[in-house]
Model the fold of this input.
Amino acid sequence: MEFYQKMDKLRIAQTNKYNVFRCLIRNGPINRAAIARMTNLSIPTVMTITAELLDKGVIRSIGKGESSGGKPPEMLELDPRCFYCVGVDVGRTTIRLIATDAASGQVAELQELTGNPLPARDFISRIGDLVLNLMEKGRIAPEKIVGIGVAMPGLIEKESGRVIFSPDFEWTEIPLKHWLKEKLPFTILVENANRALALNESYFAGDGEPTHTAFTVNLGHGIGAGLVLGEELYMGAGGTSGEIGHIIVEQGGPLCMCGNRGCLEAVASGDAIAKKGRAAMEKGEAEGIYALCGGRGEEIEAKTVFMASERGDQAAMKIIDDAAEYIGIGLSMAINVLDPDRLVLCGGLMRNDVSFFEKIKASIEKHKMKQTGRQLVITRGIKGENSTAAGVCRLLLNTLWRERSLPI
Amino acid sequence: MEFYQKMDKLRIAQTNKYNVFRCLIRNGPINRAAIARMTNLSIPTVMTITAELLDKGVIRSIGKGESSGGKPPEMLELDPRCFYCVGVDVGRTTIRLIATDAASGQVAELQELTGNPLPARDFISRIGDLVLNLMEKGRIAPEKIVGIGVAMPGLIEKESGRVIFSPDFEWTEIPLKHWLKEKLPFTILVENANRALALNESYFAGDGEPTHTAFTVNLGHGIGAGLVLGEELYMGAGGTSGEIGHIIVEQGGPLCMCGNRGCLEAVASGDAIAKKGRAAMEKGEAEGIYALCGGRGEEIEAKTVFMASERGDQAAMKIIDDAAEYIGIGLSMAINVLDPDRLVLCGGLMRNDVSFFEKIKASIEKHKMKQTGRQLVITRGIKGENSTAAGVCRLLLNTLWRERSLPI
Done:
């Protein structure tokens, strides 16, 4: 029914207020005449709105600016402390929490090892405690929190905030949002971790330029992706988009956790690289790997294989080269179909030698259709280890903007 | 800058008018009180707008409806003859033209064999003549035409209407829109044929239900696709999206026209099926194909291989089964990444025995990630041979709606 949304006075006033607020976030410090010019509003309208925003304490005056002839104008800017979001990145090895202010700046952070599995309800209760610890650490009053975002690996049902299936935690049908809300009476949003990461990494992706279509891949223990169109995260019809790890790149290849054979994740993820490294050592083909782990197969991680490869171990080099080749094949498929202008490669595998990134780029160049991807720029993720938590904060903020339910 | 678009009186009035017009198209015949209810507008506003639309001749009264107590209300509906679009589908073998009215109903059609290649400028001049013939045939006055849409195979630059690269016509950098406009002084829009088809096929895809994400594949001489999000065609950052024919499904497989090896198009398109049929016959492995073409390899088309397969030729059956298997692998990739709720299979290959469609569905079920595509419905295209031409008319109409430049 949105086609028929009525352009009444209340809606116009609200739209104007959000436009002025956005203008202050993006362009502040700024004077009222400049706001009027940029938002196409009259100066009296801008004066009324800024008075309201000043009164609510969401913006502040920082004194007089430069005069352009008349008396110097008063400069206004967002008060970033007017509200906060909390983002929680629940990972297989680490739980990372951050709080961000209204300007999306990080104001507090907290990390804990995930540790041994707890029953889901206890684990969620622990997440609740960590959020409270973070608020205390950042000295953030509960009434200043506009909501809490939780990023989880796995398949999430958006509306209910249920975790339908998370292989990493062996969870099936867990009402995460419902249980967390019992402990934390805030707006709560649950999202797939790869998508949260994608939103943050593609947001003016490092160089300040907005993108048309950004495809962000998380190359870690597993492989997943997220698609951002304009500034909006793409969800998919059933909430399962981005599963590039389960496209088949080697027919009849190794068995994948998902039940199929030859998935990208089964041949090129961190877990696959470690497994191949182990197998090579056991066949006596990888002296470099043997030397690094002292022959203890269970200690071999993807990192071990990367290190052996850098030291010239032939078997390790082949494993790494094959992984880069397959990742390039998988990403070429996304490029052919989606024609993105930005491809961002993130995750644990990207923390190894930069030659791995270069090899993936070479494989993409070889496997994508020549005429596609004319606008494409390929970069590494640069937003650090809290990027997923920051992404889920951003998603929460975007949702509140769209619903016009910010405390302004 | 659209964030800051001002909600001024003119824009409100225009939005209200387009809402009333849309309500009349979708729900007419309808009375004024019902329009007011559905559009959230006051009855006086609806009266003013309908008076203007009646005056311009874009809607008409069809008499009194049923009374719900008071005096019977006047029933209004769109006058479909208030304006027309022309759609041209320039195909490798046939040029199809249709004219559609304001209700998107087809009012005239024209077909011609593409024939032997002409120089691009002459060929475009011929398209212009065909459009004029169609207008004459349908008795459509030039001033009633809101624009002409042209669907072409190949890579199109949207803004300029240039054909950057069309292997089917061996065109490179042809200013189609510019040259056509010299002959036909109308609004002209040029679009890739697979995308135009996708827009039409996914439009309330056959059962009246709007879709979230519809992925439409054209399985013909080549293989291409189009993505529709909501009611909007997805373009891609550089205008080359939908090239699913050039994802690699058989590493080291046959050489493709694009220069790579093992592309879906090189192993499963109509051309690939014909080529494989020819090779099988030449090796003496396909008696059924030999019987159908009398041993004349150059007469073998995909259709020949399908027919031989239906008659039990083992080599032909394997070629068809392999093609279905590969198409399923390719489409599984799109399903994993995009999570569509609708997949529509169209094109020449779909006009063969329905078992081919069933085999593709079985391959998808086997190769997609089990947990994805929870909302997915897979159908065959049902909108017939003018679907691409109808799609480019729809795209033109959508563009004029968005630009608020319909003659209403």
User: Anything to note?
Assistant: Chain A is about 40% helix and 20% strand. Residues 168 and 342 of chain A are 28 Å apart (CA to CA).
